[in-house]
Design brief:
- This protein folds into two domains: 133 residues, Sandwich (Immunoglobulin-like); 198 residues, Serine Threonine Protein Phosphatase 5, Tetratricopeptide repeat.
- It is built from twelve helices and seven strands.
- It has a four-stranded antiparallel β-sheet, with no helix packed on it. Strands 4-1-7 form a three-stranded mixed β-sheet, with no helix packed on it.
């Protein structure tokens, strides 16, 4: 059974979400429209060659919101190759997808940013074989809108706010520095410990992140955000029972939080307690007002395990009817095939 990273669950659901129209601006056009955000690089840019290159590929970056729909606001997409120090800019101004053509082999970083959303980054390896690459990135609100503990001292609050701003810009390393300063001033503050955990998770230090998230919970047992993040990290490393232990109080403290219900549902699923997983997915769907795609797809998977395939089929078909693009996704097609073929007894969520 594969280890499932909750934060990456259903990522495939977003891959073909974007509309049919594609839009990409050259760096020259971008610098004219957004002169402060798109400086012209010096020297040639091998990512933006105008003539075809042998072995070159295309990259399509699809941007979606937390509900799985195409991102309808302006998002800026940056494609960079650290080895050659070159950058290409794109935009979703006219659609939710940016396409980069004639991309040569290399190790790339795809960065997507939008006002009011957390900047997201993904790595992408492009081989020397010419082929199309598609990558889906979900922009999320959340950490930047949290309400800080009112008893936080002014200097600690200032450092914490700077750290949150850095997280919003996608700079987890800088955010960590600000949170470390705030932590020295307020080591017993739950929010500061929680934010340190978030920054460390983004800096690929899950072990230390778990330590800070655990401290946040010890200072505030009802800190739902810390419980969800800690539960997700425990699921990533396969500690299913430990994840359930930390997530069950989260849904009691925040019964209206659909992410808390969804995380607990995934933990129950991993523990093969499918009836409890069903209950939590249904609560997640209800509290999200049926807007979130992920818990609905998870519920279909749970119902397959419970041998209730007709119900699972209705859920998936309803989703596809509401969002026709979902029917083209491999993960959704596999669920439908499993249901219709009366199979899927050993499947995991995609």
């Amino acid at each position: 059974m594969q280890t499932v990273d909750k934060k990456q669950n259903w990522t495939a659901v977003a891959v073909l979400v974007c509309g049919a129209s594609l839009f990409i601006m050259s760096i020259h056009a971008q610098s004219q429209r957004y002169p402060n955000r798109f400086p012209n690089p010096s020297g040639p840019n091998p990512l933006a060659q105008s003539s075809p290159t042998a072995g070159a590929s295309s990259i399509s970056v699809c941007v979606v919101d937390e509900e799985g729909f195409p991102f309808r606001e302006l998002a800026i997409v940056k494609l960079s190759d650290g080895a050659s120090q070159t950058v290409l800019w794109g935009s979703t101004a006219l659609s939710s997808e940016a396409k980069f053509n004639n991309v040569v082999a290399g190790q790339y970083t795809v960065e997507v940013s939008a006002d009011g959303f957390q900047t997201q980054q993904e790595g992408l390896t492009v081989t020397g074989i010419s082929q199309p690459y598609r990558i889906a990135i979900t922009l999320r609100r959340g950490i930047t809108a949290m309400r800080l503990d009112q008893i936080l001292a002014p200097r600690a609050r200032k450092e914490t706010e700077k750290g949150i701003a850095a997280l919003k810009q996608g700079n987890a390393a800088q955010a960590q520095k600000h949170f470390e300063t705030a932590y020295k001033l307020a080591p017993g503050n739950a929010d500061v410990n929680y934010l340190m955990g978030i920054a460390l998770e983004k800096e690929k230090d899950p072990t230390t992140a778990e330590d800070y998230l655990g401290r946040a919970i010890s200072f505030n047992p009802q800190h739902t955000g810390a419980r969800i993040e800690l539960g997700n990290l425990r699921l990533q490393r396969g500690a299913v029972d430990a994840a359930i232990t930390v997530l069950e109080p989260a849904v009691l403290a925040s019964p209206k939080s659909w992410p808390a219900h969804e995380s607990l549902a995934m933990a129950y699923f991993r523990a093969q307690d499918f009836e409890k997983a069903r209950e939590q997915t249904e609560l997640a769907i209800r509290e999200s007002k049926r807007a979130a795609v992920e818990p609905q797809l998870l519920l279909a998977e749970v119902l397959i395990k419970l041998d209730r395939r007709p119900e699972a089929l209705r859920i998936v078909q309803s989703l596809v009817n509401q969002r026709p693009y979902l029917g083209s996704l491999p993960g959704v097609r596999e669920v439908l095939e499993d249901i219709q073929a009366n199979k899927g007894a050993d499947r995991e969520p995609q």
